[in-house]
């Protein structure tokens, strides 16, 4: 699924635009870092991709979907192909790890046998097979983020968005999360990660899109955190 931003702007009231005629293309299967200071526009890009926001102007295309305007039918179809991982996990604390991951498939109306099979597969991928019946309060921050990733990928998305997924984690755990994201990318999923973690960005030699005051100021195939 190719992602195209063509002169996309997003304004919030009378403040300076969160995005200002931003243009870039991301091809299927890429691993891309979005970097920049707080308020630069990184999270706005991710929210536009999942149609949590609609651009003030410009055009956004994902595969055959033109998502610049609200279309609830297309939004539902598109969101089945996109997973999202958050810095604060967004985990339901009254459900077990298994139940937190399964809810993504329950929403899609999958049968219980299929849900069980797929949930166990992704829990194995993220290293949580032995924590399936644990509640969030029994998990570490790193394990909570792994559960969040499992929930995001259990439906087989073509695109995985990660908004500061290592922001609340220690360095060792952060690298464990990055290993999982790289494995997901190696399986063919496009990964777009917004981050402030310079060590991770500078070590992985992936594409880096740098955003400053809502504008793309640098786009490098194997970039660094400036």
Helix content: 25-40%
The biggest beta sheet, please?
6 strands, mixed
Characterize the overall form.
globular
Distance between the termini: 29 Å
Order of helices and strands: EEEHEEHEHHHEHEHEE
Strand content: 15-25%
Radius of gyration: 17 Å
Strand order of the largest sheet: 6-7-8-3-9-10
Structural class from helices and strands? alpha/beta
**How many distinct beta strands?**
10
Low-confidence stretches: none
Indicate the mean pLDDT.
Answer: 92
Tally of helical segments = 7
In words, what does this structure look like?
- The protein has 226 residues and is α/β, with parallel strands linked by helices.
- The protein contains seven helices and ten strands.
- Strand 7 (159-163), helix 6 (171-186) and strand 8 form a beta-alpha-beta unit.
- Helix 3 (97-107) packs parallel to helix 5 and helix 4 (112-125) packs across helix 5.
- The mean pLDDT is 92.
List keywords for this structure.
226 residues; 10 strands; four-stranded antiparallel beta sheet; six-stranded mixed beta sheet; alpha/beta
Topology of helices and strands:
Blueprint: E1 3-10, E2 19-26, E3 31-35, H1 42-49, E4 57-62, E5 65-66, H2 72-79, E6 82-85, H3 97-107, H4 112-125, H5 141-153, E7 159-163, H6 171-186, E8 190-194, H7 198-204, E9 207-212, E10 215-220
Parallel strand pairs: 3-8, 3-9, 6-7, 7-8
Antiparallel strand pairs: 1-2, 1-4, 4-5, 9-10
Summarize, please.
This protein is 34% helix and 24% strand.
């Amino acid at each position: 699924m190719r992602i195209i931003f063509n002169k996309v702007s997003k304004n919030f009231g009378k403040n300076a635009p969160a995005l200002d005629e931003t243009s870039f293309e991301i091809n299927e299967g890429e691993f891309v870092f979005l970097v920049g200071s707080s308020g630069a526009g990184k999270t706005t890009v991710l929210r536009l991709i999942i149609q949590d926001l609609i651009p003030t102007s410009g055009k956004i295309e994902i595969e055959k979907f033109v998502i610049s305007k609200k279309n609830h039918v297309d939004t539902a179809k598109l969101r089945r192909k996109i997973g999202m991982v958050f810095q604060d996990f967004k985990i339901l604390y009254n459900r077990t790890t298994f139940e937190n991951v399964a809810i993504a498939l329950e929403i899609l109306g999958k049968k219980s046998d299929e849900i069980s099979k797929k949930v166990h597969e992704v829990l194995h991928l993220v290293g949580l097979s032995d924590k399936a019946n644990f509640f969030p309060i029994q998990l570490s921050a790193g394990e909570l983020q792994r559960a969040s990733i499992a929930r995001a990928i259990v439906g087989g998305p073509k695109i995985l968005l990660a908004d500061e997924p290592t922001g609340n984690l220690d360095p060792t755990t952060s690298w464990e999360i990055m290993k999982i994201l790289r494995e997901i990318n190696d399986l063919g999923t496009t990964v777009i990660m917004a981050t402030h973690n310079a060590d991770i960005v500078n070590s992985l030699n992936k594409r880096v899109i740098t955003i400053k005051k809502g504008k793309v100021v640098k786009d490098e195939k194997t970039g660094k955190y400036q």
